[in-house]
Automatic annotation (TrEMBL):
Its cofactor is FAD; (6R)-5,10-methylene-5,6,7,8-tetrahydrofolate. This is Cryptochrome DASH. Keywords: Chromophore, FAD, Flavoprotein, Lyase. Belongs to the DNA photolyase class-1 family. Binds 1 FAD per subunit. Residues 2-134 form the Photolyase/cryptochrome alpha/beta domain. One of its GO terms (biological process) is photoreactive repair. GO terms for molecular function: deoxyribodipyrimidine photo-lyase activity; DNA binding; FAD binding. NCBIfam families: crypto_DASH. The keyword rRNA-binding does not apply. The keyword Ribonucleoprotein does not apply. InterPro entries: Cry_DASH, Crypto/Photolyase_FAD-like_sf, Crypto/Photolyase_N_sf, Cryptochr/Photolyase_FAD-bd, Cryptochrome/DNA_photolyase_1, DNA_photolyase_N, Rossmann-like_a/b/a_fold.
Length: 433
């Protein structure tokens, strides 16, 4: 009897799961799916806030609980643990007497550290596979070291091969789960030393974690509301559920697969309509791929002050000024409204993110990495590569071909919040009495 551990990471779903699909009908297999809440995710950042804040952690807990339920429905289960992942997995593998471990491959330093530490401890094979991007590294028409440093060059080279993108069908049955590892304990925010996350009714929508909710959102935005048809025109708005897809929280932790999203877009284009907006959603998925490949190419450079350009930058790094930015008290209404939305809901529009990031590093002269770390703590759609890649871009140390890009937040506010409705929504000082 072969004993296999499947270690869930940022692939918290049963659709588009190549390894689980392969194991699906295997005889003489006992399968132990496991997820570990790594204690380091909840440590305090040197700037004083938790590395993972309450709203983001709540979304992850909901996602893991939904995965456990979905696994139970197909004859399996999920062992949910807490600790240092490499230590927990080592102990579980020893107790289970596992023959091999399968997991999704990650591309950034903290995650790679865990992979290497685990491989050093274990004498059994640990197999890694890619599942986060539309295209796998091996499908690219160039090596990672030759990845273009400008997105447009990358896009033009990969668009012709996108017709190869096809998600794997959903897993319907899995080999038996070992009874000695069954555990109904579910973790709470208190277990991680975090306060309760309170829902704010002003939020663009009620985000709930999990594959079921991710697939529901996919269906609603594309098929039910057909909002995809207007995406290019509405994506820079600030208020409302359907100005953008809002797929990003589920894409970030892999409860929704990028390939599944892509295949639904293509199906919609074939059966309903293809226009510039439907194409633009694919365009944005390619940006996600691109930042992941940039992280793979440059490694730790994406976390350095000079970024991938090795630029020499000097900042004032006034902590009090940073705190005012972080808590939405800079005195600039547009910046403060966006930062308040982030703190209260764990979400902010793309337009807002560009503006507050530019304001922090270009106007306030604060190290962009402080801002990237705050986003990591707060955003429910935090994705290592996308977050740090976008911050580098705005700071002028990343993949932006334009030198000295600058967002004039007052002009931007006049353009995208002309009637001040967004600022009035989020700032009590501007709200109607």
């Amino acid at each position: 009897m072969k004993k296999i551990i499947y270690w869930f990471r940022n692939d918290l779903r049963l659709h588009d799961q190549i390894i689980l699909k392969r194991i699906e009908n295997q005889k003489e297999v006992v399968l132990l799916p496991i997820f570990c809440f790594d204690e380091r995710w909840f440590a305090k950042h040197t700037l004083g806030f938790p590395k993972t804040g309450s709203i983001r952690a709540k979304f992850l807990i909901e996602t893991v609980n939904n995965l456990k339920t979905n696994l139970q429905k197909i004859g399996s289960d999920l062992l949910v643990t807490f600790g240092k992942t490499e230590e927990v997995l080592f102990e579980v593998a020893k107790r289970f007497n596992a023959n091999e471990i399968y997991a999704e491959k990650e591309d950034t330093s903290e995650e790679i550290f865990v992979e290497e530490a685990l491989k050093k401890r274990l004498s059994i094979p640990v197999h890694f596979h890619e599942s986060k991007t539309l295209l796998k590294t091996e499908q690219l028409p160039f090596s990672i070291s030759n990845l273009p440093d400008i997105f447009t060059h990358f896009r033009k080279k990969v668009e012709p091969i996108l017709d190869t993108v096809q998600p794997i069908e959903e897993v319907e049955k899995l080999p038996p789960f070992p009874d000695e590892f069954r555990n109904e304990h579910s973790f709470s925010l208190q277990d991680f030393g975090l306060n309760e996350a309170v829902f704010d009714s002003r939020a663009v929508m009620h985000f709930t974690g999990g594959e079921c909710e991710g697939l529901k959102r996919l269906n609603k935005f594309i098929w039910q509301d057909k909002s995809i048809l207007h995406y290019k025109e509405t994506r820079n708005q600030l208020i409302g559920e359907n100005y953008s897809s809002k797929f990003s929280p589920w894409l970030a932790n892999g409860s929704l697969s990028a390939r599944r999203v892509f295949s639904e877009i293509k199906k919609f284009e074939k059966e309903v309509e293809a226009n510039e907006s439907t194409y633009w959603l694919v365009f944005e998925l390619l940006w996600r791929d691109y930042f992941r490949f940039v992280a793979k190419k440059y490694g730790n450079k994406i976390f350095l002050k000079g970024g991938i350009k090795n630029k020499s930058l000097s900042y004032n790094n006034d902590f009090e000024v940073f705190e005012k930015w972080r808590t939405g008290k800079t005195g600039n209404d547009f910046v403060d409204a966006n930062m308040t939305e982030l703190m209260k809901t764990g979400f902010m529009s793309n337009r807002g993110r560009q503006n507050v990031a530019s304001y922090l590093c270009k106007d306030l002269k604060i190290d962009w990495r402080w801002g990237a770390s705050w986003f990591e703590s707060q955003l429910i759609d935090y994705d290592v590569a996308s977050n740090w890649g976008n911050w580098m871009y705005i700071a002028g140390v990343g993949n932006d071909p334009r030198e000295a890009r600058y967002f004039n937040v007052n002009k931007q506010a006049a353009m995208y919040d002309q009637d001040t409705s967004y600022r009035k929504l989020w700032l009590d000082s501007l709200a109607k009495p």
